[in-house]
Write a structure and sequence with these properties.
Elements lengths: L7 E3 L5 E3 L1 E4 L8 H14 L3 E3 L7 H13 L9 E6 L6 H15 L4 E6 L27 H13 L3 E7 L3 H8 L10 E5 L7 H9 L3 E5 L22 H10 L3 H11 L3 E4 L4 H7 L9 H8 L15 H8 L15 H16 L8 H10 L29 H4 L4
Parallel strand pairs: 3-4, 3-10, 4-5, 5-6, 6-7, 7-8, 8-9, 9-10
Antiparallel strand pairs: 1-2
Helix pairs in contact: 1-2, 2-3, 3-4, 7-8, 12-13
């Protein structure tokens, strides 16, 4: 990757982004003041890229930390690159700006450096960030994300954000934006889960071909927050291969995991609320992995996704993983009709194939998407063909979270 002396990379709109960013998501159990303190430390150590989000609920604290570091002369506002994210309950085009303005107000900023669509799944608008029905099922919304994107473009034109991008988009969703008639601005980047166990090589190749940067989150294997992460998944930083490479360079596995992404041309995020580790992570610029070691780390890929932001309704997941079950779930909320349609078709497909021929699922999904009642640009959660087990045998229960994707 080509970065300048400030460790910045040029994006497709001409603006620059620091190649390593400090993450500010903190689990509910952690006091928000820790996030504020750690953000100050990150700036003191030299990090200039801060990754936040409306839904993290920490923008006030992060804003205070940045302002304190501006007031004490450590940095100026223009030295800081702050990323904010559009919450899923604000996807309707008329709501996009209000989400942004709420973030700006909390941060006490006039503009964001980067504003990205957090996930390509729309939820029912309203004060509740995770709207649920009486059965505890998420209530989705039907939004054409191309219109959401136009509202993002309008935020840039209004001078409220310098750059715009997306997060958790797959290739098809990126193409949907890129092929939009009258597209004014391309996304500058796509922020996705990416680490040696899920190296996203295909998505990276696609993004590079379109001059879109890939940005890695969970690059250290995530915070392993019990709310989101299956605790039985392997701990990335305890991987023996990563450990052996780290030893060879006299660095930590965390530094090797961060450096791996930089050398692939990926902007990388990390979160730490520990001063020693924040300081350690700044050394990522001080060493270089050999081509051979990069290849060895590539070989660790096992398409293991730690974070399952939104899962398909449980009965659908269960049914896919155990296709011999015949009963149809009947408790979808009216807002989930499209999911129900998907269920009907999937169920038929599995029946026709005796639950065995899952390899044709990608084709089946594309046929489902082409049906008029599931218009392709809408943000309905669908199964990622990549994640569907390719053999006839259903994935084991332990694999369930990783075998089902939300888009
Ligand atoms: N767009 C999205 O949907 C999305 C999703 C997830 C995350 N993100 C963003 O990406 C950021 C980073 O991802 P993440 O929060 O999932 O976690 P991460 O960066 O993969 O891992 C964080 C964990 O690694 C530990 N750690 C940090 N440096 C270390 C070191 N040098 N040695 C050993 N352990 C170290 C931290 O512990 P301590 O804190 O105890 O030091 C923390 O528990 C988030 O904060 C958020 O801003 C975005």
């Amino acid at each position: 990757m080509e970065f300048d002396k400030d460790h910045c990379i040029k994006m497709n709109d001409g603006n620059k982004i620091p190649a390593v960013g400090f993450g500010t998501y903190s689990p509910d159990a952690v006091q928000k003041s820790k996030c504020e303190e750690a953000t100050k430390v990150a700036i003191e150590v030299g990090f200039r890229h801060i990754d936040g989000a409306f839904v993290y609920g920490t923008e006030e604290e992060v804003g205070r930390a940045i302002h304190e570091k501006i007031e004490d002369g450590t940095v100026k506002r223009e030295d800081i690159f702050y990323t904010g994210k559009l919450g899923s309950t604000f996807h309707r085009p008329e709501l996009v700006r209000s989400c942004l303005e709420q973030s700006l107000k909390k941060l006490k900023f006039d503009y964001l450096d980067l504003f990205i669509i957090h996930i390509p799944v729309s939820l029912k608008p309203g004060p509740d960030l995770s709207p649920m029905d009486e059965n505890g099922k998420l209530i989705f919304d039907i939004v054409d994300l191309r219109q959401t994107w136009e509202a993002m473009e309008a935020c840039k034109d209004a001078g409220l954000v310098k750059s715009i991008g997306v997060s958790n988009f797959n290739r098809r969703q990126l193409e949907m934006i890129l092929n939009k008639p009258g597209l004014k601005y391309k996304p500058v980047l796509n922020q996705v889960e990416c680490h040696p166990y899920l190296n996203q090589s295909k998505l990276l190749t696609f993004c590079k071909s379109k001059d879109i940067l890939l940005e890695a989150y969970c690059a250290l294997g995530s915070q392993r927050d019990k709310m989101w992460i299956d605790q039985s998944t392997p701990v990335l930083l305890e991987d023996p291969v990563l450990g052996a490479i780290a030893k060879k360079y006299n660095q930590s596995p965390a530094l090797v995991a961060l450096r791996y992404q930089l050398q692939r041309g990926i902007v990388v995020l990390f979160k730490s609320f520990t001063r020693k580790r924040i300081e350690e992570n700044f050394q990522v610029f001080d060493f270089q992995l050999s081509e051979e070691d990069m290849k060895t780390i590539d070989g660790l890929n096992k398409n293991l996704r730690y974070l399952n932001l939104i899962q398909l309704p449980t009965p659908l997941s269960t049914r896919l993983l155990n296709p011999t079950t015949k009963t149809r779930p009947k408790h979808y909320s009216p807002q989930e009709t499209r999911t129900q349609d998907l269920w009907t078709t999937l169920s038929f497909h599995l029946k026709m194939n005796n639950g065995k021929n899952t390899s044709s699922i990608p084709d089946f999904i594309s046929r489902v998407r082409n049906q008029t009642h599931i218009s392709s640009p809408c943000s309905i959660p669908v199964i990622s063909p990549r994640e569907v087990p390719s053999s006839g045998s259903p994935a084991s229960a332990g694999d369930s979270k990783r075998s089902i994707l939300y888009f």
